[in-house]
Amino acid sequence: MAPRPARTDLFLTPAGDAAPVSPARAAVRRIVRDRAAVASLIFLALLVAAAWGLAPLLPHEPNTANYSAVYQPPSRTHPFGTDALGRDMLARVLAGARISLQIALVAGLINLVVGVGVGALAGYAGGRVDDLLMRVVEILYGIPTILLVILLMVWLEQGVANIYLAIGLTYWLNMARLVRGEVLALKERDFVQAARALGAGPVRVVGCHLLPNCAGVILVTVTLFIPEAIFAEAFLSYIGLGVPAPDASWGSLAAEGASNLRAAPYLLFFPAAAICLTMLAFNIVGDTLRDAVMGD
């Protein structure tokens, strides 16, 4: 009797791969197959390239006034027009992109450190520590976040560094709750118990075993936080508590445009469009990443 041929489909995934697909690889495939997510990533890449690569090559400085070119509509010389001081709006929008994105990313890093730290400590320690930290989180949840940001900015005064702190130190609540939930679900698993039995201390257990298994939740939360931070910075600058003049952020540019809406509507259109498109792109990427990591 001829030997039975060996089966080759024992380790095939539904997609027909020869080996199981890792969660990270599955997430990348999900994003690549989503046209909206790919378009959003391309837009964000072009925005970053323009803000940091193209802006220094422009013939106009963002803060240099030119009183002979006041309120010029969009043209070849000034594709986004000029403002009340004759400053080139394209240069100012790209300069605002650098500031707004920097604030969002640095605030996201602060959000990551504080939120993950509080959530991991509460979830792993449990007991009174968990109760105390979660009561603090619940109290802060009862206060509108943007109000906390405004109060912090009034106390800290204007400045980019203070915006980092004000946004980063008020938007960590959601991160803390999500990480705490993940740590509570994972800390009684067999691999964690085995690490403890082998003598691993709390820091090693949390850093080497629990947080790596929370990476998907953490990454998605940070990605979805970035558009919130962009909006918060734009709001602060719009009401005069954000980036001080003469530097430009998208919020301050939108405020200037709103005050000159009838005379020069393009002054509001371009920064507002930049805010909307960037927030939309980050939200699309974040939603796609969430579906890929956590499932539909």
List keywords for this structure.
single chain, 296 residues, mainly alpha, MetI-like fold, elongated
Overall description:
- By secondary structure, the chain is mostly helical.
- The chain has one domain: MetI-like fold.
- Helix content is 67%, strand content 0%.
- α3 packs across α10, α7 runs antiparallel to α10 and α11 runs antiparallel to α12.
- The radius of gyration is 24 Å and the shape is elongated.
CATH superfamily: MetI-like
State the separation between the terminal residues, measured CA to CA: 49 Å
Instruction: Tell me the domain tally.
Output: 1
Q: Structural class, from helix and strand content?
A: mainly alpha
Could you tell me the CATH topology label: MetI-like fold
Order of helices and strands: HHHHHHHHHHHH
Shape: elongated
The percentage of residues in β strands lies in: under 5%
- The whole-number mean of residue pLDDT values reads 84
Which CATH class applies here? Answer: Mainly Alpha
Please identify, by name, the CATH architecture: Orthogonal Bundle
Please state the CA-atom Rg, rounded to the nearest Å. Answer: 24 Å
The main pleated sheet reads as:
none
Low-confidence stretches: 1-18
Tally of extended strands? 0
* Number of helices, where a helix is a run of at least 4 consecutive DSSP H or I residues: 12
Relative helix content: 55-70%
